[in-house]
Protein 1
Amino acid sequence: MSLFIIIALTAYSLFAINGIIDKFLLSKAVRSPAAYAFYIGIGGPLLALPLIIFDISGMKAGIGFVDLIIAIICGGSFIVALYFLYSATQKTSISRILPIEGGLVPVFTLVFAYFILPNDRLTDMQLMAFIFLVLGAVLISLKKDKDGTWHPQAMKQAVLAAIFFSLHFTLLKYTFEQTAFIPGLVYTRLGFWVVSFALLIPKDVRRAIFSTPKSTSTGNKFLYLGARITGGVGGFLQNYAISLGSVMIVNAMQGTQYALLLVGTIFLSKKYPKILSEKITKSILAQKIFAIILISLGLIILTVY
């Protein structure tokens, strides 16, 4: 099995833990999507800057002006994507959002990569694995709920989130191709700050951002810290996997995160039914098992070929 696949699997395992914690926080503590995106955007670069000591020569080599702008756009697009994702999640159930993320992010990445990354092309077997992984991700996250109607604004925001996530990951791979891993990571994180500080401009958003820490309990602050640690390490590993292998394959592997998230939600829903609910019927179980089989087939193909 390729090293980047193992690293990506580890990253998505951490993202599954992060996803459960984020669900708690967005349900109980942080009600403003902009505030949540702001604090993630401010903290992201702070985690990346210490890495400079491991590649001082790479930082001294610098990066071209145009590539620096692209790196900043790359980082900024991630925070924009988070804002749209959290906004959509608040307007409808997360079960409606995950199939869009699991299905559209890899597809949009495939399109962006075709125009931006001429050296990143999938072989026939990798394309087959890509299809299995994407279908598995959609199936494992697809769930019917009592309300059969879509919130139009939520759907629009979910699609926009998928587009900006895809743009971020594609430009991230491009940046890694122009410079070393650590400098690329640091340069793209500058974009986190640009968009995060821009969120302070609207008065109502600024008020929500500054009031959030005061209204958050000590226990939820520790939860937030745990979310940022798992999310930060997971993000670092995901970025490293992208630098080593195909960005399209790494994104398509997101279904493994949903599989682990499903297992974690089932166990925790008994203790926290109002926040984490996962009703499992025979038909739903069959759907999830089939999805896991598709994801497994995709991983097996990547391992063998």
Protein 2
Amino acid sequence: MHRFTVLFVSVLSWISCSAPRASSHRVSVHGEDMLVGAIQQEELFRTFEVFREQYEAYMPDDSVVHMIAAVRRDIRVEAFLGTWCGESRVHLSHFLKVMARAGNSRISYSLHGLDRTKKDPEGLTVTFHITRVPTLVFLEGGRELGRITEYPEARMEDDVYTIIKD
């Protein structure tokens, strides 16, 4: 009976780990809740209120936001974060506020929640060589333009504009 139980649990674990996941899932590791996988902003704000608080508190420089809004390149941002990470809570929230204020439909982004080992179910951390969070990877036509790792060098909006300006 014991061998059957171990085999059954092993098969279930293998199936759940190998199945592709299109959305995040809340996991608890050693009593700590986190989101791992693809995350929607609404889910992030609902599950971890601190992200919403940081978002609402941040006031980006409108002159730089207007320059971001005027960029005419098609940019994709892959944003990697840890819901458990203080720097992600602050700097990713600032990025989200800048993007919302800019309202540039030519700039899109995806949020990817990582566990404490900085892994995700889709394996994107390997593809993008992610070792620290948050990391924002800016792409144009699949080519990396630049990245912001852990924290911006200046303000978030300044670093974003420096990377994506025409």
Protein 3
Amino acid sequence: MKPADLLWRLRRRWYIAIPGLLLAVATVAGVWNAVGPEYERAGTQMLLPGPASLPEGATNPFLFLGGLSIPADVIVQSVSGENVQGAVLDRFPGSEVVVDRGAGSAPVVRITVTTGDDESAAELLATMMDRTVTTLEQIQNSENIPDRDRMSLITLAVDTESTLRQRTRTVAAAGAGVAVAVVALALAALVDGLAKRRRRGVTADEPAAEGPQRQTSPDSDAELEEQ
């Protein structure tokens, strides 16, 4: 169907198309208010070696971070597990936590949380950063690692304000509005097409008009009577 034909059909069935578009606008507003925005915060922690791992006389552990990438990966996997995050997220329904490694080779653990309000984002981030510390402690306790050999986590940065994210809200509202609009316009075009097909059927069923009858002249009638 050509675009011009479609527009003409929608114009003829404006009483379906216009209310459908108004319903689509109302749907967008309703979904926008129902979904709500998301608040995101992030924090980073760095893994440091134990005192016994440093050379004799060394006082700066930041100079000896090599080899800690693998332990940092272990922490990320442990904190990302359901046994750790599940208990935390039960207190924050609808929230999301992502734990991964920071960019580069440094043993950095990055935690990103997303919730429905700013206060919950701050509380959830603080809780998860505490969980990384306790998880590392539990792992080392299970292996009976001496205190001098134990690694530790320090906080590098924590967001003090949340970042407002509207992507999920926008996608949900736009998707619902487009779906309603498409259905309404398709219905208008379908109704017009069915009406047009019905009119064609009625026209085809009408009897054909009778052709003109042969006219006879008076002279020809007289000739027939004489015969």
